[in-house]
Amino acid sequence: MRDRGSGKYCSRSCSNRHRNWKDRPSDTESVRFCPKCHMRKKIDDFYDSGTWCKECFSALVRNNYLKRTYGIDDNEYREILASQDGGCWICGKKGDQKSNGIKMLAVDHEKKSGKIRGILCENCNRGIGLFNDRVDLLERAIEYLNQF
Question: CA-CA 20 to 30 A from 85: which of 49, 76, 92, 137?
């Protein structure tokens, strides 16, 4: 008759296998392979349910967002950004560093046609939006600021 231990496992060998799995060295359990970038990364660099690392998954989400919203992909976004010396077209501010890369600058576009004008930081994009993309109001604001 088999010794089933505490009844938690079907056999002693299964119990031993589980014990060995739990006590395995931390260097083997803390590494996973990302099939997208073909790199071995720490387990913390993966979402719990995902097969891609966080960096690759974030790039996929960003690319899908750009395609769906503006009709460009991540490569086109990077080309536009590079043509602007890597920063906001108006003030030159670069993207903010985040744990998984660079926070994207805003894609500025004409509201009616959807044509992309350039890439702006959040503040510049918001400022233009608050003036409803009206040049006459922006000129009056400049005139006002120049008085002081």
Answer: 137
pLDDT in tens, the chain (148 residues): 445 555 666 777 666 655 554 444 455 568 889 998 999 999 889 988 888 999 999 889 989 999 999 999 989 999 999 999 989 999 998 876 454 455 679 999 988 888 999 999 989 999 999 999 899 999 999 999 999 8
Q: Where are the domains of the chain?
A: 54-146
In the CATH hierarchy, which top-level class contains the domain 54-146?
alpha beta
Name the burial class of residue 1, with classes exposed (0-12), middle (13-18) and buried (19+) by CB atoms within 10 angstroms of its CB.
exposed
Chain centroid, CA 73 distance in Å: 14
Residue 45 has what DSSP assignment?
A: G
Residues 66, 77 contacting (CB under 8 angstroms): yes
